[in-house]
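Appendix B, record 7
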Amino acid sequence: MFKQIILFLIFGASFNIISQQNQFKTHKIILKGELTSEDIFEKDFGRFDAYELPMEEGDIIKMRLTASFFPLMIVTAPSNEYKMAFPQDNNPTVIYQQTIDESGLWYIYIAGDSLDRGEHNLEICYISKDAQEIPPNANFITLMEFFLAHSKTDFLFLKGIDCEKISGKWDVQLDSRGKYKSATIVSKNDVSVLTINFESEENLFEEMTSKLKKAFSKTWNIRVNDSENITELFEIEGLRKMTLQKEPLGIKLIISTK
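C-alpha cells (predicted):
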C-alpha cells in the first residue's frame, strides 16, 4: 500500500502567528511508519513508503531516519533528480541534509528489500530560506520573532547539528547585524536555553520591556518585577518562557524551550 502524507498542511498549520507575520518558517516533525507485505514492491527499488513535501529553493531540510531494518532513503526533486542515503559504519541511523535547489514537490522514499518488514521513524527538520539569517533591518521585536521561530526546532539550525536532541553548549555563529553582543545555547535533559546578551544603555531595559508587553500580551502571560529589573513572559498555549533581566554589565534575554 502506498503511504503518502502531504506535509504542507502540517507545516502551514503549525507556525505561530508571530512567525507567520515575518515568514520565519521552521518546523520539526516525526513521522512513524511501517513496512508491511501490503506496501508496494518494485524489482529494482525494493519495498517502500513515500512522503511528499513542497519546498522552495534555498530552504534547508535535515532528516534523521531510524528503522528496525537496514533502510535506504531516496530524496527526489521535482525534476526527478534524486539522491540516496544509507546508514554508515553499521549505524542503523540515516542522516541527510540538503539546501533545496529546486522549488516544487519533493518526494522522500524509505525503502527496504523484498523481505524487509518493520517500523521506521523519520524525523524532519525544516528551515525556510528567510529564517537562516537575521534581517539587516530587524528591530528588537523582529529579533525576538526570529529566535522564537528557531525555538520551535530546539535551535538546531543555530547549533549547527541535525535533528537529534543532544546535551551541550553552543555559541551562536550568526552575524548579529549589531543587534546584540553575543548569544549562546545550552541544552540538557531535553530543554534548550538561548541567552542573548545586549549592551546596557540608558532606559534600554524599560524600552525592551514596553515593546515585549505590546507585542506579546495577547499570546503570553507577562510578569514584571521592577524592584529586581526582571520581566518574565510565559507562553499561554505552550511551555516556552522568555526572561528579560537587567544586570550590572548588560541586559540578558533568555528563551527557554520548556
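Remarks on this record: The CA atoms of residues 28 and 125 lie 4 Å apart. The helical segments are 7-14, 17-22, 140-151, 156-159, 204-216.
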